[in-house]
Structure formats: C-alpha cells, structure tokens
Give the backbone structure.
Amino acid sequence: MDEIVILGGGGLASEVADAVRAFERDGGLVCRALYDDDRRLKGRVLQGLKYAGTIQDYLDGDRPGAACVIGIGDNAVRERLAAELAAAGRTVRAVVHPTAVVSGTATVGAGCYVAAWTFVGPRVRLGCHVVVNVGTSIGHDAVVEDLAQLCPGVRISGFCHVGRAAFLGSNAVVAPGKRVGAGARLSACSFAGRDIPSGTLASGVPARCIG
C-alpha cells in the first residue's frame, strides 16, 4: 500500500482522514500520521492518526517515502504550502473518496481532495490542490483551476470555468458556461447567472458583486 500523510489538524483534515481510511479498507492507501504547526496537538490523535510534528518537519524530509495531501481549508495557506512542497520536492497525491463518482474522461490533479458523494462529470478538468467538498457536482466539460475550493453542495454546470483559488460557498450554483474568476468568492446559496470577475465577492440570487 502507498503511504500518505495529511498536512493540517483541523476540520478539513479530519474529513480527508476519513476518505483515506476508506481507501485503506480497500487496500489502496495507508495513513498513520498528520503534521500541523499547532504544537498543542503533540500527543493527540485525530481520526486515529498520530501527530508527527510540524509541517516544516515534513518539508525538511521527515517520512521521506510518504506522499502528502493538504487538509487545510484556507486557500491562501494551501497556496503557500503547495509552493513549499514543490520547492522541497515532496510528492503530493489526490485523495478521492470511494463514494465519489468521477468520470473516466475527467482529469483530477495532484493534491486534490474529492469528498464523499460528489460527481465529477465527463471531460472535467480539476487542477492541483482543488477541494471538492461533500455532495458537490461538476458538470461536463467544466474546468476548475488550481487551489479552488468548492464547499459542500456546490453545483457547477457544464462548460463552466472556475479560476485559480476561487472560493464557492456551500450550495452556490454557477449557470452553464459561466466563469468565476481567479480569487473570486461566491457566497453560500448564491446563483451566478453571469460571469464573476476575478478577485471580487458576489452574493445573492442572482449574484451581484458586493466587494
């Protein structure tokens, strides 16, 4: 079995740990440790995983044979860590929950977390370190760029484009063929019936830029 560690010790890390445990039952992955910069976690156990040290310990070469996945929700932190992992030459890998439905023609980038009960449709392209949270669906031919985060229940229609490090809140919906720009934020339960410019905050039904 392949060994993997989780970077992070909070809520998202616990969900990623559950997905890895499901894989472990199927004989595909084994995970026994997590790394987090909160030293108060020393001696504690999260979802059966022992705290092995700080993220810097892992970057410095701890567990040299183990790949990793980032279990941290903050997009900015995830982006910084992704760069540091690349610079350190550490291996990242995607974690896809066994209950997720991922089309055989979809592409899932390294470091992605695809949660339980999600749907990733035909010819979808997920970049690296994308978070696709519980119950999300991504329609055919959509593109979700690196480091974007789709919260629980998000609906991405066909031919949509979600930019780098964009954040879509829980149950947000993007109409077919629309774009959510890089770094944009779409509030929970909002409907994007038109393109959302990069770096803006949009909210409402229909969604309007408010920041």
User: Anything to note?
Assistant: Residues 156 and 200 are 18 Å apart (CA to CA). The first strand starts at residue 2 and ends at 7. The chain has a mean pLDDT of 94.
